[in-house]
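Propose amino acids for all 321 sites.
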């Protein structure tokens, strides 16, 4: 089914107790995963990417509910979970209405999911990127919730800056809370660091996901960032991921306030949590060692900082491969 059909089921309170979410829009996958899994006093077990363990997942849905609460299982992954595993977890939900299971698949190879669960009671939903009017409506709703006064024209400008990325645009709304007046285009241009120009975080995510980063790097350097600043930004980002990694392994789920010192939007927390668990502690050690070594080299006299930077980035992707 599609998002519109799922919305009708939510409105009519006719939802299943198992869901398979996939498609082009990670933003909608995040939003609806949270929406359908919000159950009061539930016993929740969440798996992020490489954390997934079938025996633990099955045991969670097989156990008797404690004190009348519900068992909720959430799996978020860029790697496909074996279909036989999903079938088993769905069947456990079919046998027990107190169970709730959400499988959120963020990978690109999702087309076979469209009819894979047709014989099951699960709701499998493909999410497309929001259309322009949907994107504007979503950002406008976030602005209303944050009590930020902003016109549709300004929202359209914000989305254009971020190449129609709804998640990033929603995240920017918090910046405008400093103004006790209507937001102008000039305010947006002053405060927003858009993907259409240069975005270090986006570049770093691409680097750590082992994607081609060279065009982004050229763009970043052309817009005035120096090589040392790029290295220190990567170091800070990797350190933040390591903090997420440690916290999740100790506590089970991330808490942005305790990890970062401030409450971050949920989609940001989920994104960093998922990426952080892709790397083992020894990998973080090697990355920090390489980045600190490269920073020291760059600070020496008469060195080719661009060559050192490119070499370092290539080595980063080798370490995490």
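Proposal:
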């Amino acid at each position: 089914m599609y998002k519109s059909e799922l919305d009708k089921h939510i409105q009519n309170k006719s939802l299943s107790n198992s869901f398979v979410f996939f498609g082009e829009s990670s933003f909608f996958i995040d939003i609806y995963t949270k929406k359908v899994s919000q159950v009061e006093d539930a016993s929740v077990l969440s798996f992020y990417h490489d954390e997934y363990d079938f025996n633990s997942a099955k045991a969670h849905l097989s156990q008797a509910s404690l004190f009348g609460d519900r068992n909720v299982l959430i799996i978020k992954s860029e790697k496909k979970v074996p279909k036989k595993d999903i079938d088993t977890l769905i069947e456990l939900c079919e046998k027990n209405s107190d169970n709730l299971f959400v499988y959120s698949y963020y990978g690109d190879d999702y087309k076979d999911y469209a009819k894979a669960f047709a014989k099951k009671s699960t709701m499998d939903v493909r999410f497309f990127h929001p259309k322009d009017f949907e994107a504007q409506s979503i950002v406008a709703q976030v602005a209303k919730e944050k009590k930020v006064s902003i016109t549709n024209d300004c929202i359209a400008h914000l989305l254009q800056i971020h190449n129609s990325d709804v998640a990033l645009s929603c995240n920017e709304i918090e910046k405008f809370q400093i103004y006790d007046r209507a937001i102008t285009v000039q305010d947006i241009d002053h405060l927003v660091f858009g993907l259409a120009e240069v975005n270090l975080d986006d570049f770093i995510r691409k680097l750590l996901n082992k994607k081609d980063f060279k065009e982004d790097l050229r763009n970043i350097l052309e817009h005035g960032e120096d090589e040392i600043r790029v290295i220190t930004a990567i170091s800070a980002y990797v350190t933040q991921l390591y903090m997420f990694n440690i916290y999740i392994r100790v506590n089970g789920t991330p808490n942005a306030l305790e990890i970062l010192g401030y409450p971050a939007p949920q989609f940001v927390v989920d994104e960093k949590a998922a990426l952080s668990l892709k790397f083992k502690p020894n990998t973080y050690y090697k990355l920090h060692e390489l980045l600190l070594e490269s920073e020291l080299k760059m600070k020496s006299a008469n060195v080719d900082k661009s060559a050192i930077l490119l070499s370092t980035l290539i080595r980063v992707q080798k370490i995490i491969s």
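The longest helix spans residues 227-251. The domain at 200-319 is CATH 1.20.272.10 (Zinc Finger, Delta Prime; domain 3).
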